[in-house]
Amino acid sequence: MARKYNFSAGPCTLPLSVLEQLRDTMVEHENAGLSLIEASHRSKEYEAVHDQTIELLRELLSVPQSHQVLLLGGGATLQFAMVPMNFLPAGSSCDLIHSGSWAGKALSDAEKIGTVRLAYDGKEFNYMTLPDADQLSLDSSAAYLHLTSNETIGGVQFKDFPDSGSVPIVADMSSDIMSRPFSFEKFGLIYAGAQKNLGPAGVTVVIIREDMLERCPETLPAYLSYKTHAKTNSLYNTPPVFSINAMRLVLEWVKAEGGLAEFDNRSRLKSSILYDTIEGSNGYYRNPVDQRFRSTMNVVFRLPSEELEKQFISEATAAGFDGLKGHRSVGGCRASIYNAMPMEGVEALADFMRDFSTKNG
Ligand SMILES: Cc1ncc(COP(=O)(O)O)c(C=O)c1O
């Protein structure tokens, strides 16, 4: 098979070695006489996979003892609702940094549950920048401050996280988790759908500070309460065993490749190759994002016309570069360069872009 360079925003490219391991262990898991997806989730075979996955997440992300790792279903989207259901009781309000499409979805669900104050709204800048500390209006009595660490559609990424004092930050890290180190100190909870840097869709990682669990109301249905999952080591109900096992293999791969520091370097390098190509194109390619907040994961760019964008995407696809179409809500082009995208893929795309602009300039 001629494997394409897959620049999709998620689901996205995964390490080939992980796919091969999944294939090779599909029918029988470690001499168990059955496959993992046929084994009970209470079996010792699955329990080992489950615990190893959590341990690897703890180790690679340097999760402190104060925080618990949960593996949930429902995608990051369910977290848009679970966060306010657990932490936004009547009479309180939360702050939210509105940075683009995904923050907008978190806002919309939170508003259905309780009161949300916008600590910042990037609307007037078309969500192409993020706030400096003095542009943030923070409420010191907020239940929490929600932010989106990387806007997958807009290509905008926080480089540092705001100082919210004693207000815990809740962060949607779906599209840049495991791409750079960060300290958990400010975070009451982070969440991430797996299908970018962690594995296939189907499992969502939630990392929650222990004291936040005390806030979860007893009135919530069981699955919707973080407490339920924390008390049962994320085994309250049947977990997505295939996705969790695949995530375990991706995490082992991340560790073997050098861990977070290594992927931080690679992400900076890979994204700078594409941003330099855009910058060096004499305005042929344009990236609309404030330079300070350009994403190292999702590089968005426009061409001189929509017609040329269509032609670019069609010729790129024919040349083996998949998934370069920008999100349907914004158009343009987007190269998502998550951890499993090799340097060669990015270099090949940069060559293709230079070639295309020379031929069609
Ligand atoms: C930043 C961000 N948040 C949330 C989501 C929604 O995730 P899910 O599809 O897992 O619900 C996505 C999906 O791409 C995303 O990029």
Secondary structure elements and pairings:
Elements: E1 5-6, H1 16-24, H2 44-61, E2 67-72, H3 75-87, E3 93-98, H4 101-113, E4 115-121, E5 145-148, E6 150-151, E7 156-157, E8 169-172, E9 187-193, E10 204-209, H5 210-213, H6 226-231, H7 241-257, H8 259-279, E11 298-301, H9 306-318, E12 321-322, E13 333-336, H10 343-360
Parallel strand pairs: 1-12, 3-4, 3-5, 5-8, 8-9
Antiparallel strand pairs: 2-10, 6-7, 9-10, 11-13
Bound molecules: pyridoxal-5'-phosphate (PLP).
Residues 10, 75-77, 102, 148, 152, 172, 174-175, 193 line the site of pyridoxal-5'-phosphate.
Give an account of the 3D structure.
- The chain has 2 domains: 16-255, Type I PLP-dependent aspartate aminotransferase-like (Major domain) (Aspartate Aminotransferase, domain 2), CATH 3.40.640; 259-360, Aspartate Aminotransferase, domain 1.
- 37% of the residues lie in helices and 16% in strands.
- The chain has 10 helices and 13 strands.
- The strands form 4 sheets. Strands 2-10-9-8-5-3-4 form a 7-stranded mixed beta sheet, with helices on both faces. Strands 1-12 form a two-stranded parallel sheet.
- β3, α4 (101-113) and β4 (115-121) form a beta-alpha-beta unit.
- α2 packs across α7 (241-257), α3 runs parallel beside α4 and α8 (259-279) runs parallel beside α10 (343-360).
- The longest helix is centred in the last third of the chain and has 21 residues, at 259-279.
- It is globular and about 65 Å long.
- The mean pLDDT is 97.
Distance between the termini: 34 Å
Trace the largest sheet across and list its strands: 2-10-9-8-5-3-4
Q: Roughly what fraction of the amino acids lie in strands? A: 15-25%
Any low-confidence stretches, pLDDT <50, length ≥5? none
* Number of helical stretches of at least 4 residues: 10
Domains, number = 2
Order of helices and strands: EHHEHEHEEEEEEEHHHHEHEEH
DSSP E strands, number = 13
Q: Which radius of gyration do the C-alpha atoms yield?
A: 21 Å
What would CATH call the architecture of the largest domain? 3-Layer(aba) Sandwich
- Briefly note the structural class of the backbone: alpha/beta
